[in-house]
TrEMBL record:
Record's keyword annotation contains Iron: yes
Taxonomic lineage from the root: Eukaryota, Metazoa, Ecdysozoa, Nematoda, Chromadorea
SUPFAM superfamilies, sorted: Cytochrome b5-like heme/steroid binding domain
Pfam families assigned: Cyt-b5 (PF00173)
InterPro entries: Cyt_B5-like_heme/steroid-bd, Cyt_B5-like_heme/steroid_sf, Cyt_B5_heme-BS, Cytochrome_b5
Transmembrane helix listed as a keyword: yes
Organism: Cercopithifilaria johnstoni
Domain Cytochrome b5 heme-binding: from-to ranges: 7-83
Subcellular location: Endoplasmic reticulum membrane; Microsome membrane
This protein's name: Cytochrome b5
GO molecular function annotation: heme binding; metal ion binding
């Protein structure tokens, strides 16, 4: 793993300047990534990354529910981190920047967990299947 002291410190203004196809930087969890070379390889297409170019993509990155491999792959593109003065501003929330992701995840309500994209992709089809099955059984018994 790269030691933070070996990384370059950037401001949000510096990152914002890299918002096009020739230079695409994004911020995830106050880390700065140069994803220019990854644009053509991104499974969701380059436009997904270009929409977030030069800005904080933390929420979008986490909302998608990337695999562990995808999260691990981000290390290849890590070029620096946000300076402390700009880190909280770029995070776009009022939470303490020292709060670990594990604590934040554990603090989520059950509604957030149930309706997260991962669970809803499983639960909604399951519920529909159960309703269809029960209707089928009810109709079959009636006739």
């Amino acid at each position: 793993m790269v030691d933070k002291k070996d990384l370059t410190k950037y401001t949000t203004e510096e990152v914002a300047a890299h918002n096009n196809v020739s230079s695409t930087w994004i911020i995830i969890d106050n880390n700065v990534y140069d994803v220019t070379k990854f644009l053509e390889e991104h499974p969701g297409g380059d436009e997904v990354l270009l929409e977030q170019a030069g800005q904080n993509a933390t929420e979008s990155f986490k909302d998608v529910g990337h695999s562990r491999d995808a999260v691990e792959m981000t290390k290849e593109y890590l070029i620096g981190y946000l300076s402390d003065a700009n880190a909280t501003e770029a995070a776009g929330d009022k939470t303490n920047s020292s709060t670990s992701p594990t604590i934040a995840k554990n603090g989520a309500s059950w509604v957030d967990i149930i309706f997260s994209s991962t669970w809803s992709n499983f639960l909604i089809p399951l519920a529909i299947s159960a309703v269809v099955y029960l209707l089928y059984r009810g109709i079959k018994t009636a006739f």
